[in-house]
Amino acid sequence: MFRSNVLVCGGTGCTSSNSEQIIEKLNEEIKAQGLDKEVNVIRTGCFGLCALGPIMVVYPEGAFYSRVTPEDVPEIVSEHLLKGRIVTRLLYQETVVDENTTKSLNETTFYAKQMRIALRNCGVINPEVIDEYIAQDGYAALGKVLTEMTPQQVIDTMLASGLRGRGGAGFPTGLKWKFAAANQADQKYACCNADEGDPGAFMDRSVLEGDPHSVLEAMAIAGYAIGASQGYIYIRAEYPIAVKRLQIAIDQAREYGLLGKNIFDSGFDFDIDIRLGAGAFVCGEETALMTSIEGKRGEPRVRPPFPALKGLFGKPTVLNNVETYANIPQIILKGADWFKSIGTEKSPGTKVFALGGKITNTGLVEVPMGTTLREVVEDIGGGVPGGHTFKAAQTGGPSGGCIPASLIDTPIDYDNLIAIGSMMGSGGLIVMDETTCMVDIAKFFLEFTVDESCGKCTPCRVGTKRLLEILDKITSGKGTLEDIDKLEELCYYIKENSLCGLGQTAPNPVLSTLKYFRDEYVAHVTEHRCPAGACKALTNFHIEAEKCKGCTLCARNCPVGAISGKVKEPHVIDTSKCIKCGVCMEKCKFQAVVKK
Amino acid sequence: MQKRISTLPFHDTPEQARKLEEVIASLQGQAGAVMPALHQAQDIYGYLPMEVQKKIADGLGVSLEEVYGVSTFYSQFSLTPKGRNHISVCLGTACYVKGSDKVLDRIVEKLHIQPEECTEDGLFSLTACRCIGACGLAPVMMINEDVYGRLAPEDVDGILEKYAE
């Protein structure tokens, strides 16, 4: 038995800010102090509060250390672990009540409104040790399914729970399983979509890094329900830590007989293999993903036939997203009624969001469906930093849209987001402030879809390119009012005529910004002005003579020599030479440089 | 995405050639073998020269057209060699709204290369990537395995200098 457990986040965010070095240093120091029989260091998955990484939590006290550096480690070991004095200075300040008292993590505003089902084990267990997962009721759901339930009962439970696909479209999971189960074939497949392609979304990666067994267990349950003996996890090669932990998890599950032949002596066989993606956004679309597992160019196929009838290698296939799977063992153990009691009537359960952009607490949060955007952004997210104001939140990635500040009290669920012109998507939630130009954001997403369009169907391949050209024209100040109308018309054409979800949703960023921020488009066109001051072609830098002290700092830093003036006299920017890099504005100590 | 194709002459070591043969032999006859073969070949060579793609096609009994179709479809596969130091600047949404485009501009200006290019001395290559998942640290760039977060354009010069020998 260890006296103390030290949990260090080994997710991608914290690893990127040196958590591996912290773990090494911890082990060294603990050994040097002779505590290695008393203190256990555990590398866990993501805690969610990435903004404060690297994160370290010491139990039994529950002391939450944030932004730890390797240099802090000796102090933590000698003070806290050896002498029992918490190093208050390094704690997450919100958990500090006074010098001698700390709050538990669950009482902080970041965690208080959260409810963790999919992320229940992330930041709690060591993902590389199967016994820790089993100690948290892991594989109990698979045991229950194989020994007490028929495949039909499993499907009925899923249907009754109302669980909807967390990958974006929100299709009822039970229905998917029911269709695949009904089709007879010599071979069926239960697959997992871990090709998290939306830029700014990283919940699936965190589940795989922090709790890989929950996905394996759920895939085996799906296999049993539909009659599949083989599963594939299609995961991005850009997620090396997740791939490694998944492979460890698969090997351990095989060793324990939880994957492979005759699981739980029930006669049920199921095994899982990993297939690496190679960076193609379209492969998040189910038919494209299956074509890619087959080793080909990941182009989507025409549906019908749907994958439940003809999927991978032409066989009936169920494909669910990582977060969807992570919910399933809990639903089996606690029952459909428990799950339905959380969230809203049509969207039961919770949803994980990746908070990013102009927000204080960037990171991962899991909230019950129906939580308002305001609660997520202001309470959990801590609001917009730097005295800026909330302008919009973007959900659904390149397929979604922007939600303006006026709709911040919308309860988030699948249907509400669709109704206001956005979508759930995989759960990326990017916050924007008044310095973000909405036309520029629409252009940003279109650049992405133009890059990622697979080229198979014309509306998407050619249409998105034309959309981008019009947006380019508008942001460089050459657009006309007629262009805005053309833009809108083309959007609807692409939505109606594209082959797969990528093309059908690609115009959403344009349509939603047109709907809520049309005045910004018009300002670009009629006044040749970018209200947010973000579009370079429409912004000019100018020095306000009355504020300029003539310190020459701007002139010395200007890379193109566009600023002239004598010492202690107001300086002037030559706009014909200026490349609008903004260095002068950053350097000026008197706020004399302004954008116009 | 438009792929740039290397015009540099291809050289491989006997060691590399042997490893590639092993990879091909281990995948022969498997369904869906082209992608795993390309992944592993890229690990061996750092990129996918046309000569290597031809060997994979011959070895797996598929046409070069099919292999080429796959290698040009996915952004992970590179048809140009990488520099000794590979820079990828994240242009994912979270990084973009926090100004990663300006970080990229600064690197382009400093190294005189565009994304997907390599400097003449082979010291640096540059790419713009979509989200490495470290959104909490935005804006982010990676040089080789090192991640640099919470960047400002003026940080670029100092960071590049560390790699410039």
The value of Rg of chain A in angstroms is 27 Å
Mean pLDDT of chain A: 94
Main sheet summary of chain A:
5 strands, mixed
For the largest beta-sheet of chain B, the strand count, sense and barrel status come to:
5 strands, mixed
Inertia-based shape of chain B = elongated
In short:
Chain A has 596 residues and is α/β, with parallel strands linked by helices.
Description:
The complex is a heterodimer of chains A (596) and B (165). By secondary structure, chain A is an alpha/beta fold. Chain A has five domains: 4-107, 3-Layer(aba) Sandwich (Glutaredoxin); 130-340, Rossmann fold; 350-433, Ubiquitin-like (UB roll) (Roll); 438-526, de novo design (two linked rop proteins), CATH 1.20.1440; 540-595, Alpha-Beta Plaits (2-Layer Sandwich), CATH 3.30.70.20. In chain A, the strands form six sheets. Chain A has a five-stranded mixed β-sheet, with helices on both faces. In chain A, strands 13-12-16-14-15 form a five-stranded mixed β-sheet. A four-stranded mixed β-sheet of chain A has the order 2-1-3-4, covered by helices on one side. In chain A, helix 10 (212-226) crosses helix 13 (322-334) and helix 19 (481-497) packs antiparallel against helix 21 (508-526). The longest helix of chain A is centred in the last third of the chain and has 19 residues, at 508-526. The model of chain A has no long low-confidence stretch (mean pLDDT 94). By secondary structure, chain B is α+β, with helices and mostly antiparallel strands. Chain B contains seven helices and five strands. A five-stranded mixed β-sheet of chain B has the order 2-3-1-4-5, covered by helices on one side. Chain B is elongated, with a radius of gyration of 18 Å. At the A-B interface, helix 1, strand 10, strand 12, strand 16 and helix 17 of A face helix 2, helix 4, helix 5 and helix 6 of B.
